[in-house]
């Protein structure tokens, strides 16, 4: 992938130096509050390799977000093709993120996600980008709204991969943004 530069960030493929941070964000109780599992180092490394390969192959994915001024990796923001039928059609483009807690509340996710939406609509030519989160994950749904995404309550769903041991994490809210809506938001700014 060709790195994407924003005002403060570089969105790029994963590098070996990012492995420790990637494991930390996938095993940290605070970061993973709305996920039913914590990844071991081996599981985290496997996902890291899969994401890096996908980003290299496709030119996008859940890619590393790095602070341009320091070179510090803070987590990931990116686009990924979904596979959650029948709730979300296979191949829909999802926007998602996960940052280490010390980088929360600084606008990094919104800044990076805006750049990824531009990529989705202008480079890939997608008609729509979707996102979803556990119903009470207020931090993530606030980002979705800041991005101009619209909640579609009729498309909320019980996530099929959430284990029975975590019923409170099963219900997910669904958000979407069309290319036309994104163009309108862009023109208004």
Task: Describe the structure concisely.
The chain is α+β, with helices and mostly antiparallel strands. The chain is built from 5 helices and 9 strands.
Describe the structure.
Strands 1, 2, 3, 4, 5, 6, 7, 8 and 9 form a 9-stranded mixed beta sheet that branches. The chain starts with a strand and ends with a helix. It has 5 helices and 9 strands. 33% of the residues lie in helices and 25% in strands. The chain is α+β, with helices and mostly antiparallel strands and 189 residues long. It has helices at 19-27, 41-58, 108-124, 138-146, 179-188; strands spanning 4-5, 9-12, 62-67, 73-81, 93-99, 128-134, 150-151, 157-158, 171-178.
Instruction: Write down the overall geometry.
Output: globular
What about the largest sheet? 9 strands, mixed
Mean pLDDT comes to 96
Tally of strands: 9
DSSP helical segment count: 5
Give me the secondary-structure category: alpha+beta
SSE series: EEHHEEEHEHEEEH
Distance between the termini: 28 Å
InterPro entries: Acyl_CoA_acyltransferase, GNAT_dom, N-acetyltransferase
GO molecular function: acyltransferase activity, transferring groups other than amino-acyl groups
Pfam families: Acetyltransf_3 (PF13302)
Protein name: RimJ/RimL family protein N-acetyltransferase
């Amino acid at each position: 992938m060709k790195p994407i530069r924003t005002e403060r960030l570089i969105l790029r493929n994963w590098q070996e130096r990012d492995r420790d941070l990637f494991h930390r964000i996938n095993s940290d109780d605070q970061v993973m509050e709305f996920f039913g599992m914590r990844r071991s180092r081996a599981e985290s490394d496997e996902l890291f390799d899969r994401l890096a390969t996908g980003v290299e192959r496709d030119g996008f994915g859940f890619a590393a977000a790095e602070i341009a001024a320091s070179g510090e990796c803070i987590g990931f923001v990116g686009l990924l093709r979904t596979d959650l039928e029948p709730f979300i059609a296979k191949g829909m483009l999802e926007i998602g993120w996960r940052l280490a807690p010390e980088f929360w509340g600084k606008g990094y996710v919104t800044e990076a996600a805006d750049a990824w939406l531009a990529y989705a609509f202008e480079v890939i030519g997608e008609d729509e980008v979707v996102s979803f989160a556990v119903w009470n994950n207020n931090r993530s749904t606030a980002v979705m709204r800041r991005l101009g995404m619209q909640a579609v309550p009729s498309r909320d769903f019980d996530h099929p991969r959430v284990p029975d041991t975590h019923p409170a994490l099963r219900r997910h809210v669904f958000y979407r943004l069309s290319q036309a809506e994104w163009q309108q938001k862009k023109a208004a700014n």
